[in-house]
Design a protein that fits this description.
The structure is a single chain. By secondary structure, the protein is α/β, with parallel strands linked by helices. The protein folds into five domains: about 90 residues, no CATH class; about 70 residues, no CATH class; about 180 residues, no CATH class; about 90 residues, no CATH class; about 40 residues. About 50% of the residues lie in helices and about 15% in strands. The protein has 20 helices and 13 strands. α6 runs antiparallel to α19. The longest helix is centred in the last third of the chain and has 36 residues. The termini are far apart. The protein binds zinc ion. Zinc ion binds next to loops.
Length: about 550
């Protein structure tokens, strides 16, 4: 197959008979050599040349028929086709990128090389090879291989009372059937530290002599989980807010707090927290979609199975991350289907079809304009055009800096904007760069100065970019190894973490509170701060009255 221009081809289709490449716009490229038979035949009128020409055209028609059939088959389900007959389509974007890292897994072509490479692993050498050469290393290896066996002792043992009545027949008389226990691993947060806290619950199962039912007290202080709420909060806080990989969270819990839990436990804690906060997350998405302003941005994420995309939606207080398998605009449409406010975004085409008023990020625009200037420093046309735009925007930003994002003050600049575009229409540029810049400005005119007409709409997309940056920092820990389910759990918790930061409350504090409503938690914090301020003021007043009294008496 021919090699195609980079960045152009989005889908490669391998047809069983003919090899062609078809882009998403259905442009077909064939690698045919066109022989000069027609001109030869026109000159010579030889029947042999004519026959060759007819055969050649018939082959072309046959190829086209096969291609048409194949393309029709793509749009219909391939029921009944064996795997070898079914067309093999691969989305180029789903192919994993080759790793540029030095410490990557090398795919060896020979099994012998693979086996030799495995014998050089650090652990393998230390545990299997070097221990045979050194007594000292053997001793160290034996010591480190021993897992911690001693179970940590319970801080508190509670004998859980039985139920008052038989749940089946409501009888009051029943007897102990067998005893059981439940140990809950947790931590306690003090004013200046954390302590491991293990509670052991002893309880009985009971048998009712009347109806023979076996039961236990359904009212319990523990859930079905092995870990307590505070330990889950700590683990999620370290993983999501402090960006500690799950493996290191487990090391911290084991080494510092003396637990004996595997790495997989921290992943289970993350999954449990994500399930618990699912409603909170859904309400964040709803709040954003029903507001008057949304910033949106998206980024790529490598999964275990391929490539996916994470979209960040935020207003000035809530942040929600949503996973989508592709970068198409369907997700934006489904999330913001009832959105009536202003959408702030970059110039990615997926946003263009949204029907709400839009503000494009002007920082993106001026960066691109700056690149044009850098590339063509002697292009007078682009210099003039960009210069005029800069003067226009600078005056508007000066008003924003002085009065904030208020239409009352910004509306006055609309005259200058109209004048700028009127001048632009009558400009005819010779250079390609200036022409491109002019076309871009005119095409996006409706989305460049929307912020002059709506209160509180920023002229850049920094809010969404800030949210994306938070995800990018977290992404380092699971890139290439996470599953779709794992990513979705991360996104639920990161949405809550970033929302807490936007609302000025502690993520750890919210997790520890056990509540699901971030606004209610923020409000309770605010009330407590207000009450503390009031008592400090009262105390101050009382002290000054007392000082005055003493002075008068003195
Ligand atoms: Zn009973």
């Amino acid at each position: 197959m021919r090699s195609w221009g980079k960045g152009f081809l989005s889908t490669v289709i391998v047809v069983p008979c003919y090899k062609v490449a078809v882009s998403c716009r259905m442009t077909v490229y064939t690698n045919f050599f066109i022989p000069p038979w027609r001109s030869e035949w026109e000159k010579s009128r030889e029947p042999r040349t004519k026959e060759m020409l007819i055969n050649y055209n018939a082959d072309d028609c046959e190829a086209l028929r096969l291609l048409t059939e194949f393309l029709c088959r793509l749009s219909t389900p391939t029921v009944g086709l064996s795997d070898s007959d079914a067309p093999c389509t691969v989305n180029v974007e789903s192919l994993p990128l080759p790793s540029r890292l030095k410490f990557r897994n090398v795919q060896f072509q020979l099994p012998e090389f693979d086996a030799i490479n495995k014998s050089a692993y650090w652990d393998y050498q230390r545990e299997r090879i070097l221990v045979r050469s050194s007594e000292r290393l053997k001793e160290i290896a034996e010591k480190t291989r021993k897992p911690r066996t001693a179970k940590p002792r319970a801080n508190k043992t509670i004998v859980w009372p039985g139920p008052a009545r038989c749940p089946k027949c409501n009888g009051k008389k029943f007897y102990k059937h067998c005893n059981s226990s439940k140990t809950v691993l947790d931590v306690r947060f003090g004013a200046s530290g954390i302590k491991r806290w293990i509670t052991k619950y002893l309880f009985y199962r009971y048998r009712c002599p009347k109806c023979r039912a076996v039961f236990h007290n359904s009212e319990r202080a523990w859930a079905n989980e092995k870990f307590g709420v505070n330990l889950r909060a700590l683990s999620v806080y370290e993983n999501i807010d402090l960006r500690m990989p799950q493996e290191r969270v487990a090391i911290f819990l084991n080494d510092v707090l003396g637990f004996n839990i595997p790495r997989s436990a921290t992943n289970r804690l993350k999954a449990s927290a994500a399930a618990f906060y699912d409603d909170t997350y859904e309400s964040l998405v709803k709040t954003i979609a029903s507001g008057s302003l949304v910033h949106a941005d998206e980024t790529k994420v490598n999964l275990k199975t391929g490539v996916g995309y994470v979209w960040a939606f935020t207003n000035l207080e809530e942040v929600a991350y949503v996973y989508a398998p592709s970068r198409e605009g369907d997700l934006v449409h489904s999330i913001l289907k009832d959105f009536k406010g202003v959408l702030v975004s970059d110039f990615y085409a997926a946003y263009d079809s949204m029907e709400c008023p839009q503000q494009k990020c002007l920082i993106h625009l001026i960066r691109d304009m700056n690149d044009d200037l850098m590339k063509e420093p002697f292009n007078e046309e682009i210099k003039e055009l960009v210069g005029e735009f800069a003067v226009l925007l600078k005056a508007i930003i000066a008003t924003v800096d002085r009065f904030g994002l208020k239409t009352r003050f910004l509306r006055g600049h609309k005259v200058a904007v109209d004048r700028f575009f009127k001048r632009l229409v009558n400009r005819y540029y010779q250079t390609e760069t200036a022409l491109k810049c002019k076309t871009r400005l005119e095409k996006n005119r409706s989305g460049l100065f929307t912020f002059l007409e709506f209160d509180g709409v920023p002229w850049n997309n920094n809010n969404a970019e800030h949210a994306i940056k938070a995800f990018a920092l977290l992404r380092r820990d699971f890139s290439g190894v996470a599953t779709e389910k794992g990513i979705r759990e991360y996104l639920i918790l990161l949405s809550i973490c970033e929302t807490c930061k936007c609302k000025g409350v502690s993520f750890l504090g919210f997790l520890r509170s056990g509540g699901k409503d971030i606004d209610a938690f923020a409000e309770s914090k605010l009330r407590r701060t207000r009450a503390a301020n009031v008592s400090v003021r009262k105390l101050g007043r009382a002290l000054s009255t007392e000082a005055r009294r003493q002075k008068n008496e003195g």
